[in-house]
Amino acid sequence: MLLGLVLTIGLSISSASAQDMAFFRIGTGGTAGTYYPIGGLIANAISNPPGSRSCEEGGSCGVPGLVATAVASNGSVGNINAIMGGTLESGFAQADVVTWAQTGTGIWEGKPAADKLRMIANLYPESLHLVASAESGIESVEDLKGKRVSLDEPGSGTLVDARIVLEGFGLGEKDIDAEFLKPDQAADRMRDGAMDAFFFVGGYPAGAIAELASQHDVRLIPISGEGADGILEQYSFFTADNVPAGTYEGQDADVATLSVGAQWVTSADLPEELVYNITQALWNDNTRALLDAGHAKGKLIQLDSATSGVGIPFHPGAEKFYKEAGVLQ
User: Which InterPro entries match (predicted)?
Assistant: First the structure.
């Protein structure tokens, strides 16, 4: 009888805790990219599971009862599809893909628009990386012709932008020996001499590229000149960028490229109060400290740019917070 009573009490406590707990998944990208570590930092910052100490008690400054997790995924397109399908509560995606998906334009033309997609925050600029093996002889985008090039996996924002870059420089997939691999897989192939170049879109320094550069002689190829100018003129979500010298081993000079915003999106179906609390937790002092210390791109995630470069509606909860904070009219 005593054992039964203990089990009953235990189950009651467990049930109550489960009822007070909310799970919130953040779709990121491959573990070798930038989305995944940034997602982990944010998930940690906004979480405050039942039974945890409150911020006032020296504990988490996240949302009471919330358990957030960073989920590895295929990236931008996959995250948006998962949010719309209800298998993710939120996710990271490139600004171009976000706008196209919500409006049913660009790469989303002919497919049902993700009309319930809503913005939580613009996070940081993502740089287009074109990495080539030194022995490949590749020194420009045009030199990719006839080479073995990975454009990243289906469902990734990198694949979208790699195709734009190729087209902007007068090339297509038919002009290269195209493969569709994650950056870490492409890097492994390059080490083995089976890959000449690969594209990656993400914040620098990217883990897969940094590791590769420390073990193999590679070069970062500029995305600049007339081809880049044409891309900037055609696509307003791209901006001119450069990867500073010394970002990767063996990189002696700045490398001109393009960038696009990384954005955190969710569904309009999520409760306003939940998203308000999450947005508020994203911008508290505790989160600021975690972002500044946790990743090079974390320092670029700032409240004053959270509403910049946004082409879709904000979630009402996020909108309410930004208006209170004075960064949104």
Answer: TRAP_TAXI
Q: Report the candidate in 163, 168, 202 with the shortest Cα–Cα distance to residue 182.
A: 202
| Paired strand residues for 132 | 197, 219
Segment 265-300, tens digit of pLDDT: 999 999 999 999 999 999 999 999 999 999 988 999
Spatial CA neighbour of 83 closest among 296, 270, 329, 302 = 270
Which residue type is seen at 24?
A: F
Torsion, Cα of 222, 223, 227, 230 (10° steps):
-140
Measured CA to CA, the distance from residue 328 to residue 182 in angstroms comes to 37
Pull the structure tokens for residue 165.
């870059």
Is the per-residue pLDDT at 9 higher than 70? no
Contact indicator for 207, 231 with CB cutoff of 8 Å: no
Q: Which CATH number fits domain 127-259: 3.30.460.10, 3.40.190.10, 3.40.50.11710, 3.40.50.620?
A: 3.40.190.10
Superfamily the domain 18-125+261-325 falls into: Periplasmic binding protein-like II (3.40.190.10)
Q: Are strands 66-71 and 22-27 parallel, antiparallel or unpaired?
A: parallel
What is d(CA 261, CA 201) in angstroms, rounded to the nearest whole number? 10
Each residue of 149-185: pLDDT tens digit?
999 988 788 898 999 999 999 999 999 999 999 999 9
